[in-house]
Amino acid sequence: MTTVTLAPVVVGAAPLRPEDVVAVARHCAPIELDASAMVRVAASRALIEGLADDPEPHYGVSTGFGALATTFIAPERRRQLQLSLIRSHAAGTGAEVETEVVRALQLLRLQTLVTARTGVRPVVAETYAAMLNAGITPIVREYGSLGCSGDLAPLSHVALAAIGEGDVRVDGEFLTAGDALAAASITPLELQEKEGLALINGTDGMLGMLLLALHDLEVLLDTADVAAAMSIESQLGTDAVFAADLMALRPQTGQTASAANLRAYLGDSPIVASHKDPAVCTRVQDAYSLRCSPQVHGAARDTADHARMVASRELASAVDNPVITVDGRVESNGNFHGAPVAYVLDFLAIAVADLASISERRTDRALDPARSHGLPPFLADEVGVDSGLMIAQYASAGIVSELKRLAVPASVDSIPSSAMQEDHVSMGWAAARKLRRGIDGLTRVLAIEVLTGARALDLRAPLQPGPATGAVRDLVRTVADGPGPDRYLSPDIEAVTALVISGEIARAAHEGVNR
Q1: 3-state secondary structure 491-513
Q2: Which whole-number Å values give the CA distances from 448 to 148, 236, 239, 429, 457, in the listed order?
Q3: Which of 52, 224, 371, 392 could serve as a FRET partner for 319 with CA atoms 20 to 30 Å apart?
Q4: Which of 59, 288, 343, 394 is catalytic?
Q5: For residue range 288-337, what is the model confidence (pLDDT) as tens digits?
Q6: Is the whole model's pTM more than 0.90, yes or no?
Q7: Is 59 a catalytic residue?
């Protein structure tokens, strides 16, 4: 995880912004708690303490949980109730979840705590903030959340660490939570009424992964336009189909943006200009994977915009059960159900798979002499002796095949739990996990297309690419050599993948346009 110096993120003054979550989760930005928000937290706690003294049972305060909601718990057993809740629900299994994901769900749960809608004491929020600032990352396991009643198991592992139990990592080092808290001078929490429940009833894990994915997709969508431009140019395609008046006939927002990018990236290209004369090029139409790039890329852009809208609403939410209303009532509700987030996670997985699919098709065309319009088979140096980029396309195809499987929605599945009390669940955590893998796969497929496009542009010499695509080709050449005899190819793919992830590919194209 890259650490950079960032301004503190203030929690509680207003809903967090997506960039705040990325800053804390990925770059370890420090956190400050808004003082006025903490005053409201203390006031809401007083309401809970009043209910704790009421002989009438109140869910989550003086009763059991889930299917045991009708079981009254005596006052002297309620702290044990909260402790037992966290211990029993920290039942995750499988591989460790990535640090940035855990930090995101910690931060998002903290944001809900300081809304004053959960009824926790101020010290609970202060402890979560202190753990984040100290870089204490609880170990959360891959499996355990059904995406309803909150991301229960993942959030329970975080709560377990806050009470000084379980395991954590600090700067990658494995420690017991007790030792890590002691080293950071953080007193372990002793949970009181309602607090255990408030720490685990949220969509924080799936929302955190959605926000991280949207951040990465913003770069990948721009990179997809760059990669398409390199393929269209090097395969002697036309930019005429991306004209603004043609796009205006179908005013889809994302399509318009992607077409504008393609026009800019292909502008002033000597390669494109070389075959504009009908006497030189007799082709009537390019293949769909070239001609329809803005339609596919644009649909993915619109899908991401819809997902951002849902994410922004979720960021402004206080998800807990029961919840303290603005007028002071304590009410049970179903806001912890992850359906809104789960649906868009699945929707994005579809868009990611299709972006990768059209990218792979463009790559494959560049390698096929029957379709590449003059390029050597597989862009090989000595055809027959060298295989060129043949197996790079295999890698791309293998990833695309997996992404199609990952596009099968998780949110349409539901397995009842808690003795049929929780009889419909969102599977939003699973949707988020597969989207993260999908983002990684799309990144690599686009990197292979950029690597292919760069070699194909070189092979069009003496014709030269346009300023934007030429700048990208030159950037690629800083990490991967141009055409020549076969060499160890995996390091080239990994190096270009790193350029995609960093945003350098997209930046190089943008700067090339503006030279």
Answers
A1: HHHHHHHHHHHHCHHHHHHHHHH
A2: 38, 19, 22, 29, 14
A3: 52
A4: 59
A5: 999 999 999 999 999 999 999 999 999 999 999 889 999 988 888 988 99
A6: yes
A7: yes
